[in-house]
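USER: Note each token:
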Amino acid sequence: MDEAIGELVAEIDRLGLDEDTLLLVLADHGESLTEHGIFFEHRGLYEPTLRVPCLARWPGRIPAGRRLSALLQHHDLAPTILEALGLEIPPAMDGQSFWPLLSGATTTGGREAIIGCECTWQARWSLRTARYKFILARDPDRTGGPPRELYDLWVDPAEERNLVDDEPALAAALETQLEAWIADRLAALGLAEDPLVAQGASLGDLPVLA
């Protein structure tokens, strides 16, 4: 992949298109490589799966070497691209442009929280802030995980110490925030029940190899 991206960049430069080309390289998901007992798979709501690479290049428009620490999501890409090209962002479009951050026009921005869910091997929701992550299971986890998890990512980036019992007030507050977001989206979509409750994990009935 590194070599292929290098060839693409070299050809863009050779053609003299570098200052007219916004190049974005990203992945749809991360991969767990034994973390939390997950071997070479992208299930679960831990950081190895939720964090993805996102590389951007546009000489003259994006400062070289710039790194963003803000919380961003995949559906923020479409409005970002539209703003970068000077095109109107439809009001109904989901997502928030981070072009001002990417271009260096500002140093603040991004999301206060990221909501995630899994409905394949597990039926779980997560809420991720700059510092904490709260994970809520909708049904018993066949992989043996707890029903609620809370991690302080600043001191425990590997998510190895569940703080639910140590920080019950914080866990309750994040759970309330998560449930409120879910309820709001259900109302907006005209749904009466959380799909993770109604449908469960889509691969939940398949055998698990020990």
